[in-house]
Amino acid sequence: MSQSLNIRRTAGALGAEITGVDLSRDLSDPVIAAIRAALVEHQVIFFRDQSLSPAEQGRFGARFGPLNIHPYVAGMADYPAVMEVIKEPQDKTNFGGGWHSDMSFLARPSIGSILYAVEVPAFGGDTLFASQAAAFEALSAGMQATLEGLNAVHGASTQYGPGGISSRKRSSMVIAEADGLEGEFVHPVVLIHPESGRKALYVNPAFTLRIDGWTARESRPLLDFLFQHSRHEAYTCRFNWAPGSVAFWDNRSVWHYALNDYPGQRRHMRRVTVDPWPEAVATAVAAE
């Protein structure tokens, strides 16, 4: 397969499909730089007809930053940074079945996630994506200024705590309940993207608990408004999976939602999540 990239936008707010690259290969630095630039510009990028082993998927992800080891979901035995996301026919709930940004509950949240389709249902199982940059830019100047002065508290308790949606048992996934292991961390409500400089909302329904310095009750009206606003159809795109498809999204400016509309069918995906480089490395890379 040629390594000459072809990039085609797929929606107005975000999303682009890239062809002309074989992700299983040890890609050159210029190709990785082009993929990274496409990710920053389009926020989520898609690839088709790939054939990736867990090792190859991990190698590709590691070109963008250190791979994350999920604190609550077990990775593969031989590849702990590679998470198998599986819904068996008998499972009623799916993993990722609600709007969220991966790993915002950590002190240093991930920069992106790379999801690879191993087996998909005959119908259903699409993933929705929503640009939080577009959502922020659609707000009034007054609301933007207000939000830029706020921070929010993020934590995993409502998802991975006892009874949480993400902690529910599934036939082929090992998930541990959070018991305060990761605590709560404060992030800006408006995140300035470190590579593009574009501003984006950085709150999400799964992991944002309250506005910093406010009670949960005081926070709820503002957060509910932002959660409703941020998933407006105009800010979204939708990806229909096939075996060998790959989606790579930027968690700094994108929400995603795995639809659970394929009852009685199996869906098998593999995910790696990319953490930010340590500060010294990131500074050096940015300076190049």
Most strands sheet: 7 strands, mixed
**CATH fold naming:** Double-stranded beta-helix
CATH superfamily heading: Clavaminate synthase-like
- Which stretches are poorly predicted, pLDDT < 50 over at least 5 residues? 280-288
**CATH architecture descriptor text:** 4-Layer Sandwich
Return the average pLDDT rounded to an integer.
90
| Terminal CA distance | 29 Å
Structural features, described:
This protein is α+β, with helices and mostly antiparallel strands and 288 residues long. The chain has one domain (6-287): 4-Layer Sandwich (Double-stranded beta-helix), CATH 3.60.130. It has seven helices and 15 strands. The chain has helices at 29-42, 54-62, 132-137, 141-148, 157-160, 216-230, 279-287; strands at residues 6-9, 16-19, 44-47, 83-87, 112-119, 127-131, 151-155, 184-188, 190-192, 199-201, 208-211, 236-239, 246-250, 254-258, 267-274. The protein has a seven-stranded mixed β-sheet, with helices on one face. Strands 12-6-14 form a three-stranded antiparallel β-sheet. Helix 1 (29-42) links the parallel strand 2 (16-19) and strand 3. The longest helix is centred in the last third of the chain and has 15 residues, at 216-230. It starts with 5 loop residues before the first strand and ends with a helix. Mean pLDDT is 90; it is low at 280-288.
